[in-house]
Design goal:
alpha+beta; 7 helices
Length: 175
């Protein structure tokens, strides 16, 4: 459970290469994620070149950490591997990314998830740049490397968001 409690978004990195074995373990962790109907619709592009990382970092106002990372992995969804209007694709890819982020912590690295899908402009930029076929959706990017910051525990538990047996919105004043 330590990885879960110590995972946080790290957006700046040391100028130190990430070993191939660590990159492979991060990818393996992503592929161990649960998947609806075991479709496993994920595919990945590993990006280490400075030129490509700089270009990707400009495809979204939030993607700047890509240019600072030593490794960025573009997480893709293959819609030919799922059914019914890509149902569950987002959940499968999100689970894969979460596994990757937890493995990044296990490897002594820092990382951040940068969303691209469903923002149409970002998706289209990524599709054009990588010449992706229509059935491949660029879902997000995981930027990582050796961190300038320490992964440290921040307690985010909020008992006001937990209900027993029923949701009681009146009790919390929620709308």
């Amino acid at each position: 459970m330590n990885s879960i409690f110590y995972r946080r978004s790290i957006r700046s990195f040391l100028d130190k290469d990430v070993e191939c074995e660590k990159i492979e373990r991060v990818l393996r962790a992503g592929m161990q994620a649960p998947s609806a109907h075991n479709f496993k619709p994920w595919e990945f592009i590993v990006v280490e070149s400075e030129e490509k990382k700089n270009i990707i970092s400009k495809m979204s106002p939030y993607a700047v950490p890509v240019s600072k990372s030593k490794v960025s992995i573009v997480v893709l969804g293959n819609t030919k591997l799922v059914e019914k209007d890509n149902m569950w694709l987002q959940q499968d890819l999100s689970a894969a990314i979460q596994n990757m982020l937890l493995q990044i912590v296990e490897e002594g690295l820092g990382g951040v998830w940068l969303g691209f899908y469903p923002e149409v402009e970002r998706v289209e930029k990524m599709k054009r740049y990588f010449n992706l076929p229509e059935h491949i959706i660029p879902f997000g990017v995981v930027a990582f490397g050796y961190s300038n910051e320490e992964n440290k525990f921040i307690d985010r538990y909020d008992e006001t968001k937990v209900y027993c047996e029923n949701y009681n919105w009146e009790e919390n004043g929620s709308n």
